[in-house]
Amino acid sequence: MSETLPDILLLEDEKNDYLLIRDLLKQIYGAGFHLDWADSYARGEQMATDKRYDVFLVDYQLDNQRTGTDWIYAIHKKMGGKCPAAILLTGQPDVQSIGRLARQTAGISYFLTKSELDSESLGRTIRFTLKNQALVRDAKQLVTILMAEDDPDDRLLVEDAFTEIRLENPLDFVVDGVDLMDYLHRRGAYKHLAGMPLPGLILLDLNMPRKDGREALHEIKQDPLLRKIPIVILTTSKAEEDLLSSYNLGANSFIVKPVTFDKLVEVVRVVTNYWLRIVTLPTIKAE
Amino acid sequence: MTNRERITILMADDDPDDRLLVQDAFDEIRLANPLVFVEDGIDLMDFLYRRGAYTHLAGTPMPGLILLDLNMPKKDGREALREIKQNPALRAIPIIVLTTSNAEEDILRTYDLGTNSFIIKPVTFDKLVDIIRKVTQYWLEIVRLPTNQ
Fold it and tell me: Which of A5, B38, B128, B141 is packed most tightly, with the most Cβ within 10 A?
């Protein structure tokens, strides 16, 4: 970006709205500003990866199947910390639900309704976005959530639940207790992770082949380095014995896997909100 | 009966203003679970062992959740945490350290000692209410607590 002229990508399917915004930007920046226009989800994806932008202006109503927030979530997940912030534009009258959605989606700094759009509001919003971006970008260090689960369907369901709540943290999977310990010790198939920060939270199934969750839990909570990592047991087992022994072995929480996807989304939402926003996690330096 | 209706929440904090604020926060979210306070580490251990001033509680269910401040006189929270988590009769009780300390060393050490969660006390009442709401939602509605013995 030059000192005063940001590189902007506008994702907007309606040509008239593109022209309107282009004119507003002309009013704000004069001639010579850099605006690229993507008229579809796919085109936007392509352009966002081909070129470095300073800010995205994204229309909420993109096509029949996907929204602007879907696009922002996907790009943000792909690009991670380097992703430019997005300003969500909406023609929809239901400002409260759009606002709620915007706040839940990682990567959105502001949202504007098209009816209130003028050169002043747009100019100010872009200015604030660019200003905050510099502060926010380096501050956020996203912890990885690790899930140990032998059932591939259950892994997929949890992954879907994370996508549903728009969580931007990396989610890694291991398939049994041996895999889990290799991952945590950065050995075997996971040698390449040596030196990387350990996961911030472990979701642990109890019933797994090769080494079950109970044994892995015991091992982890005995290890001076690993035992600081919070472990949430997430299991189908309702056995009283498993409940008590898990807590006795040092599990931080015990949660029974819900049976419906909706309930799973709710559990994932509350669990991640609690551990990532309410709780302070330990920062464990890798060995 | 669900956790929500049954369990007592125990808070250990030496600061009477902080105790009051948490009490107010629980009222704000309309939580009906019994909320009991102890004022220091000795008081806390007496309560859990049903001794000293608390012999009348012998035979009654243990608290289902403990909110623990770290800095307390007579016996601080770190020491109490260690004692509780090393005692087979007590260590299953989930403990949430709720403290003003954000020292990295405190955070690491309390997780090392076995605290179930570490939460930094917020500065405003609104934020405290929000935290209490999220904490109780998590521990009383989503999580299964170990049953009282």
Answer: B38
Judged by a CB distance cut-off of 8 A, whether residue A243 touches chain B is yes
pLDDT at B96 over 80: yes
User: Do residues A72 and A88 lie in contact, with contact meaning Cβ atoms separated by under 8 Å?
Assistant: yes
> What pLDDT, on the 0 to 100 scale, is given for residue A180?
98
DSSP string over A33-70: -EEEEE-SHHHHHHHHHHS--SEEEEES--SSS--HHH
Strands B65-68 vs B35-38: parallel, antiparallel or unpaired: unpaired
Residues B11 and B118: their CA atoms lie apart, in Å, by 14
- Answer whether residue B1 shows pLDDT above 90: no
Q: Which chain A residues touch B85 with a CB distance below 8 Å?
A: 250
Interface predicted TM-score (ipTM) = 0.93
Taking contacts as CB-CB distances below 8 angstroms, the residues of chain B near A275 are: 117
Confidence of residue A3 (pLDDT cuts 50, 70, 90): low
- pLDDT at position A2 is 52
Q: Which of A220, A248, A264, A278 best tests the B interface by mutation, with the highest count of B CBs <10 A? A: A278
CA dihedral B95, B19, B42, A275 (to 10 degrees): 10
The answer to whether residue B90 neighbours chain A at the CB level (below 8 Å) is: no
Q: How many CB pairs under 8 A join A and B?
A: 81
pLDDT tens for residues B20-51? 999 999 999 998 899 999 999 999 999 999 99
SS3 B147: coil
